[in-house]
Amino acid sequence: MKKLWKGNEAIAEAAVAAGCRYFFGYPITPQNEIPEYLSWRLPEVGGAFIQAESEVSAINMVYGAAGAGARAMTSSSSPGVSLKQEGISYIAGAELPCVIVNMMRSGPGLGGIQPAQGDYFQATKGGGHGDYHPIVYAPSSIQEFVDITYNAFDVADKYRCPVMIIGDGMLGQMMEPAEIPPMRDLKDLPNKDDWAAYGHSDGRQRLINSIRIEADDLEQFCNRLFEKYKVIAQNETRSEEYLTEDAEYIFVAYGSVARICKAAVVELRAHGIKAGLIRPITLYPYPSDVIAKRAKSAQVKKFITVEMSMGQMVEDVRLAVNGLKPVEFYGRCGGNVMMPADLVKYVKEGK
Amino acid sequence: MKIVADKPKMLTDTPLHYCPGCTHGIVHRLIAEVLEELGKVDNAIGVCPVGCSVFAYNYFNCDMYEAAHGRAPAVASAVRRVVNPDNIIFTYQGDGDLASIGMAETVHACMRGENITIIFINNGIYGMTGGQMAPTTMPGEKATTCIYGRDPKVNGNPVHMCEMLATLTGPAYIERVSCYDVAHVLKAKKAIKKAFQVQMDKKGLSFIEVVANCPTNYHMTPLESMNFVKEKGCTFYPLGVFKDITKEDK
Amino acid sequence: MQKITISGFGGQGVLSLGKFISYSAIEQNLNTSWLPSYGPEMRGGTANCSVIYSAEEIAAPVIDHPDILIAFNEPSLDKFENAVKKDGIIIINSDIVHKKTTRKDVKFYEIPVDTLAAEINKRGANVYMLGVLLPIFGDITEEAAIHAVEHVFESKPKVIPSNIECLKAGIAYMQKLLK
Question: Are the beta carbons of B126 and B99 closer than 8 angstroms?
């Protein structure tokens, strides 16, 4: 039965259902409902919640819990996620599975608390130091938040890498009907005996570590990491296309903005303008192939990347389109949200 | 007509955004009055935190910095190195900012004995983000991340900042005050004045903790919240002077 | 499909009125979205929410042109009246809002919900307003709205009966007005 869920609380319950038993967080708007919910919910299912002294501490608690073999999560919002970047780099370097949620607000600096998508570069290009990427999901509805959170822990375990789920203040605060999948039996979760350091007594050391002081060792490790990213790109890349088959104008947008674009597509088509939408669901790996394929269609006149930022994802769209078609950018920032009518006007005027 | 009471020049005309009954406004005024009395209005430099008093720069008429969450003492320490030694430098921080995420910056500024003044508002809760547990939330006290009340076995223990910092060599003056009635507001003013005097005398770091309220997140009326501060807050966090090197000098 | 903007002071039950509508819609297996405004201050200031329900998938949860605006205070009327779509509806809480809309192309209802609800439950103005909305919606049943009220007040069962009374009074009030 579907129930009305607030975005942040839906993510929290979906994580519990997925077998996450450890959460570490710190207050910051607009994601507070996630730690608040898990502060009472996790003890109910035999898990633990720690309100860390900082985001730096929280992500290192995730390092500890994940290293000990548990499904662990942290959440924050933009300035807090910046603080977590060191820890995320270490988690990637130590090949630990975990889930990180970023309910983005506007920046730079302390910025504002209204919805934004200015952390695209940070999320998809690594964010912290060194050669790595987290897998990045960008759901656009509460049900999709639930399904992706539920799945994210499996993906993290499968590839032993950090998974980031990004939303924004709008998605975190809004309510929609959603159904939480069945509670996982912890006994069915992947066995991590091989590498998790939880106090074995079999005479073989498990080491959770990201230092590789010899150049050759580190290069070999990075090569292996990036081989893994190739496999991830093959298996996990996800996107949604909406009325792109005959579209002349294709919006590319993710998260809440993709829904605004969808409404604009409907309105444009009502005015006889063939518009469509490509919505990346994974931002890393990026669905470049889907965009590249559409760029080759003769009827496509242009791509319009729409973001709540000064233009970040548009760079990946340009790479995918590779000069075949014009790629334009429409953005709002500072916490302002574009309306479907704004996009309709933009397309009509620029036709 | 004769003006018998006026707003300190150091405060702007911007309406305060604080909730009804909150004591941030009182402490803002005390700082402004004291700096005016000390003749330091024109050369004071303030550093705001992240939290309810994040917009304090709108209310103080002096040069202000808005620091990252918890980092105000680090910012102030560097400003101290650059500006004239006679400039008054103060940070204004809440409990989450000063005692949680900024604990390291607080302790290290104190260890270095920076010649700055730290005003610490302790109401035992994260106000702006909606009432989460703070490092100073008292045992049994409810918050949105400990809805059944703080249990030290589960949520850890609260910290007594004045007592802890008093063990360090660096700080010159440490006092805990409150604002729950007129007498205590006057005492708080005296303490804040002394703190700035210590800085003007280049004696080192002064630290004033104000046991404060949060009617909104306590789910109390302003009056109830004041009584709570008086009866619970000031019992758990006893008022008084915890360090005073000006006395030791004598 | 209905797109509804509800706006007023914080504490007037603006956000929960939106929730009542969403819960009612869910009771009838409709799609719905509830999007609140949120700000840095805990108290004071204005609050608004955008509520949509529809038999179809809801694309944008933001509303540029609401079908219905419910204004619980004057700044809300000023802010949103021009956004209301042509032939849309504006409802004001006339206990608080003492002016009329400047729009000539909308239906305008002045309803003293505070006074009307106070006869039953002093805190029931927003549930009364939910009742007022049902005859306008036409596709949300009284039963669904009662379930929504029961659901929202799950943890405070004592207040449920008087709120249901407010709901019914609101429905009756609007039915009479529409006749």
Answer: no
